[in-house]
Model the fold of this input.
Amino acid sequence: MMTHAELALQLLALLLAGGWTLHARRLYQRLHHVRRDPLTGLLTRDGWTRKANRIIRRRPGATVLLADLNGFKAVNDEHGHDAGDTVLAAAGERLRTWCGPDDVAGRLGGDEFVAVLATDDRLADRLADLAEALRQPVFHNGEQLRVGASIGAARLAELNTPDLATALKAADTAMYRVKGRTRGGRRLLVPAFAAAARHLPSLLTKPWLAGAHSG
Done:
């Protein structure tokens, strides 16, 4: 039969174990929250990077993309930060809806979004669909807010160094190439592939680069 002292020690051990379990659970929840952007619900840079690296290791046909909202600063300046937050939340939801079940989206900060696609099937069509989704109006306090999007993409299989850092740099280069191209004073939406930058003259003749544009 256990003594009172032994029972007390067992009870103390159980209480300590329960306390540490609760502490660990709360710590996990806090870490999970930190890896999620509170405005859009998308993964933050750290959380997205972890998942993107796992996808890249398992899927050699993966593609990394960056998307930047054109006209976002004007929305903030003219309608206020609440309106800007509404636009960002809508963009995050549209990106998440557009992603497939094996893709992962994130928000790097500001109006810059990122995603890794597990495959590059129908990539040009899919990216054009994303650009079209992001340019749809967002309603805030009875007003229609519109932004466009510049999207750059990099196929891992086409990179000399097929890792996440290289893909992000390539996608960033492509995104700013798209952002700098204009037609009739309006931003082009259709994405470019940075991995093919060395073939830029022929790339510009591709039919999927000749179409959509937005403000």
Summary: The first helix runs from residue 4 to 34. Residues 1-34 form one domain.
